[in-house]
Design brief:
The chain is built from seven helices and five strands. By secondary structure, it is of the alpha+beta class. The protein has a single domain, classed as 2-Layer Sandwich (Alpha-Beta Plaits), CATH 3.30.70. The protein has a five-stranded antiparallel beta sheet with strand order 4-1-3-2-5, sandwiched between helices. It is globular and about 40 Å long. The structure holds ribavirin triphosphate (RTP) and magnesium ion (MG). Ribavirin triphosphate (RTP) binds next to β4. Ribavirin triphosphate binds next to β4. Belongs to the NDK family. This is Nucleoside diphosphate kinase. It comes from Stylonychia lemnae. It is found in: Cell projection, Cilium; Cytoplasm, Cytoskeleton.
């Protein structure tokens, strides 16, 4: 008999300002696709905390527009738990650019809820190390929160 090997993994998802009004639908999609929410925080980036979160993109052509967008209104950061969570969440959200997602993967969250190539509804960590860096960055007191939820079922 095979011993059960858990591949349970965490990833960091975020609902961006353009999709605030779709928060309920996106959380519904999260559960429909077998993810568990371990932590959720609604908050607001300052210029400083957004710059820290997106430090790897500093100097790129879209950087200033990205920071303006991400500091414009409330965001919801969500830590997800599932098997292969990083890869599965990236598949569910689709390509970075909404315009590409609408053509290539019309069933993805960005295709359905994205606004344009910067305002693309949601974020997803691109690797395990990114998850760690991003979750530490977002769930720190540097990002002011208006609501904070921790699930007892999976909290560690
Ligand atoms: P994310 O980090 O938000 O999950 O998205 P990603 O890995 O698919 O894309 P990334 O290259 O990390 O870019 C971060 C965010 O910057 C904005 N962006 N705009 N206008 C543009 O060409 C452009 N390129 C990137 C998007 O909001 C993207 O999610
Ligand atoms: Mg990225």
């Amino acid at each position: 008999r095979q011993r059960f090997e858990s591949k349970r993994q965490r990833t960091f998802a975020m609902i961006k300002p353009d999709s605030y009004t779709n928060t309920g639908k996106i959380i519904d999609a999260i559960y429909q696709n077998g993810f568990v929410i371990s932590k959720l925080k609604m908050g607001r980036f300052s210029n400083e905390s957004a710059g820290q979160f997106y430090g790897e993109h500093r100097g790129k052509s879209f950087y200033n527009g990205l920071i303006d967008f991400m500091t414009s209104d409330v965001v919801t950061g969500i830590e997800l738990v599932a098997e292969n969570a990083v890869e599965r969440w990236r598949q569910l959200i689709g390509p970075t650019k909404t315009s590409v997602a609408k053509v290539q993967n019309p069933n993805t969250i960005r295709a359905i809820f994205g606004t344009d190539d910067t305002k693309n509804a949601v974020h997803g960590s691109d690797s395990g190390p990114s998850w760690k860096r991003e979750t530490d960055s977002f769930f720190s007191p540097n990002v002011k929160h208006s609501a904070y939820y921790t699930s007892c079922a999976v909290c560690v």
